[in-house]
Structure formats: structure tokens, C-alpha cells
Amino acid sequence: MIDTTLDWQERYALGIPAVDDAHLKLIRMINHLVICIVEGTDRASISASLGDILSATSAHFALEEKIMRDSHYDRYFEHKADHDRLLDQLRDMMDDYGVHGRLEPAQLVRVLDEWFSEHIRSHDARLHRLVELPGSPAA
């Protein structure tokens, strides 16, 4: 049916159930949006789905950033800058969709797959090795 989805991949896993579950929830939300786009769902619903993804992503990042601040994480600013970069990309996609009514599922999935793969592998993996997070086996 749809070959442009973001599938859960082991490279996204950190082994911390709460964090992995949050990432999986975001992937499900993204895939729901892709289905809506492909099926030609109305613009208001697609805009709402984009907003939901942005909100869930922002909330997840806010929790991580609070934990980093509370633990005086040494790479807080680099990690937060990467969060901000993705949020900017999502906002740009939302703005573009609002103006032009177009959102390319393949581009959305590509951007998010690249971001998930790189961010989780580098920033999140390091953070979770150094800081006890809620839902981690050591917490």
C-alpha cells in the first residue's frame, strides 16, 4: 500500500523503555500523517497531525532538556541545538504546507529518518550513558 513510512529500526533503540516508547510513539504519529497525506485527507486534519507531531516532539525534547539542565550535562547546548534544528524543520514543513497545501511524504520520512538515526546514535546515546533518565534500568 504505502512504501513511504518510517519503520522502527533497532538503530533507534537506546534500551531505555520510556525513551524508546516515546520515539516509537512519534514514529507512529509520523506514519499516521503519511497515510493521511497519501489518502488525500483534508488539509485541516493534516495540519492538525503536523501540529500533534510538533507538540509531542517539543514535549519530549523539553523533558530531555530539563534532565540535562538538572544534571549539568556538559553537552547541553549542542544537544539542544540539534533539538532546535529538528523543530525548525518541522515548523518549516508546517508553514510550507499552510501556504502551498503540499507535503511530500518521502521528504518528511527522509528528514526524520536521518534525524532519528543520527541524533539517537550520537546525542541521545551519550546522554543516556551518562545521566540516569526516567524509565532507564538504573533509575
Notes on the structure:
- The structure is a single chain.
- The chain is globular.
- Helix content is 73%, strand content 0%.
- Helix 2 runs antiparallel to helix 3 (76-100).
- The model has no long low-confidence stretch (mean pLDDT 84).
- The longest helix is centred in the middle third of the chain and has 28 residues, at 43-70.
- It starts with 16 loop residues before the first helix and ends in a 9-residue tail after the last helix.
- With 139 residues, the protein is mostly helical.
- The protein has one domain: Four Helix Bundle (Hemerythrin (Met), subunit A).
- It has helices at residues 17-38, 43-70, 76-100, 105-130.
- It contains 4 helices and no strands.
Condensed summary:
With 139 residues, the protein is mainly α. It has helices spanning 17-38, 43-70, 76-100, 105-130.
Rg = 16 Å
Helical coverage, percent range: over 70%
Topology pattern, helix = H, strand = E: HHHH
CATH topology: Four Helix Bundle (Hemerythrin (Met), subunit A)
**Uncertain regions spanning at least 5 consecutive residues:** none
In the CATH hierarchy, what is the superfamily?
Answer: Hemerythrin-like
- Using the alpha-carbon principal axes, give the shape: globular
Distance between the termini: 41 Å
